[in-house]
Specification:
With 455 residues, this protein is an alpha/beta fold. It contains 20 helices and 14 strands. It has an eight-stranded mixed β-sheet with strand order 3-2-1-4-10-6-11-9, with helices on both faces. About 4% of the residues have low confidence.
Length: 455
Amino acid sequence: MVSVIVPVYNGEKYLRECIESVLNQTYQDVQLVLVDDKSPDNSIVIEREYAQAYPNRVKLIELEENKGIGNALNTGVDAADGEYFMVYGDDDWLDLDLCEKAMRVAEENDSDLVCVPKKGWIRGKSVLYRTMPEWCLGDMTLEKRRAAIVHLANDAAFVYIGAIKKEFFVQNDLRYLDIIPDDIPLHPLYFAYAKHIGMIEGSYYNYRIHDASMAHQKNGELYLNIHKAAVLMRERFMERNLYGELKEEVDFCFILAGYYYTIFNCLARYDNPPVELMHKVRDLVHEMVPEYAENYYIPLFWDRWKLELLLANDKSPEKLVEQFPDCDAFLDMSHDGALKGIFGEWEFDKYISGEHKEQVQKMVQYLSLQEKGSYFLWKSPTESPLCQKILEMLPLPEIDGGAEQNRNLVVFSKNDKVGQYAEEKNCKVVELLPYLKSGMQPEVYLKAAGIIKEP
């Protein structure tokens, strides 16, 4: 059985659609757990109607007082009877075969988690979000955990963790905290503990984007809490003695959520940007991760503008607000050089570590020992000047439009020839950027990515 938990608060407008999408799943063994968080609208009328009509499938919990999202979610998990549970919003809905696909993957692999694709809907139009790379899922190793946590952090808004094994959740004391966003302090821990993570394709969790949803309200409290959620996430890793071996990855999560998202939303979501918060978060980050800008993953995942924004806030939050006094001014700006006047000149070499070069040299050395002509390296095209700088600094041959047949390492600068060349020469392609992002050892990455087949 899988229990679908839906915390309800002011959800009457879309609640029926949400409930029907659960009850009409092709997977028969589905329990719906509705947790009414003392909703002031008429949601409870709808909930009671379904609980009465489907007494064996719908469990209704009516909380006596509103204690926040964390309490509602934990109450739902405690009440769930399924071996697995899923959590969804009261304004969202599921494709009708989603539970069937998720449970098939979960049961076949004894997965602790199953990730599902997420589709955003705004004004009747859909946007398909990115999913986790398959090579950092499956049977989890330390290297896969590192890669998964980083990709989760970078794509947190796009990756949805669908099915969660209840035994896994309880044994690892993975409780929800009473803070919105609730995923930041919790989801990275899932990837730190899970032994197997699965993923489905072709069926979607449908996420409704509308003005009334908390995640999209202008001048809302959500954006004031993101840095607090990031601090809690980092503290939980430390308290559980997980921080040491995942330090770089956890700090990347913290910097992205706690600093970048906070400063971006201060300027993009508030008519009067909260300068005091921008100061507070800057000082907090510099206290907790003094050399934050030198994190291994930043130049690999971020475009130049993201780091420019934080460097500008480091210099002067007041100047940032002066340059972008309201949401429209910030969102309408040209990213190219718009912040240079605040933070000064770029020092590219400062952000390119010896670790980046060492990673590539490891791959070069590994492939040089393989059969000639069986592999070639490809400098993945990138719009990020930071990434481009790393690639330019690598000691690799640049051959455009052809390849020396007696060499194993060939670098293409144009991707339109890669597939054709690989097919003609019957060789395997190793893209440098995804490899660098993984942080894995060469052979481990090549096997995880399916470039080398396991015997």
